[in-house]
Amino acid sequence: MSGRPSSLRSAHNSRKLSLKRKGYLLAFGAASIFLLAFLLFSLGAFAPGAATSSAATTATMTSYGISASSVIASAAAQAPAGYSQASSKQLNPKESGLQSGGFALFSGQGGSLGNMTILVFDTPQSAQAYIDSVVSNAKELSGYHDFSSALANYQRYGLCYGFGETDPAGNGAVATGVCTKGNVYIQVHLVSPVSLSLAQEDVSALVGAAYQGIN
Hints:
Blueprint: H1 6-41, H2 68-77, E1 83-91, E2 98-108, E3 113-121, H3 124-138, E4 145-146, E5 160-166, E6 173-181, E7 184-192, H4 196-211
Antiparallel strand pairs: 1-2, 2-3, 3-7, 4-5, 5-6, 6-7
Helix pairs in contact: 2-4
């Protein structure tokens, strides 16, 4: 026998490369999510970092009487094309002034995986102190690219910050966007098999979906 046809060998090799690439992406994403989770929750409540300036608008100072679960439900209904909610869970981190918290996983048609975290605080000041600390700690991470400009449309509601990194092995990118609107903190972390620039666009779209439920 002459061995398997070249077309079958090619398909087999392509499948092996695809699985290997997916494995790299999942490992890269898991490491990034672990790093972000450690950054945000390992110390419980953050001590407020250096104050970060933000526009003192009416929206920034408004307290919204909503729950994290209602924001997530609205975000799922407003999710950008290609994304759907896979699961959701209530969070109970020990943050000062926290009223409710939750997160949801979103999956994209292209293989992207998103994690949306919503924290509703008692006052806008509590939410602002929290995001100031998140941003301060995020800026201390090395190797990350600042893409806050991609979230510029939401700056009128409060502080926004975006940061991301391309996988050194060339298997995609991770991107994170954090914003506030009044007493609500929004975080979207995305692991994507595509470029960082496209991952940034998807983060912005998912953050926008969350904003739709805060009113």
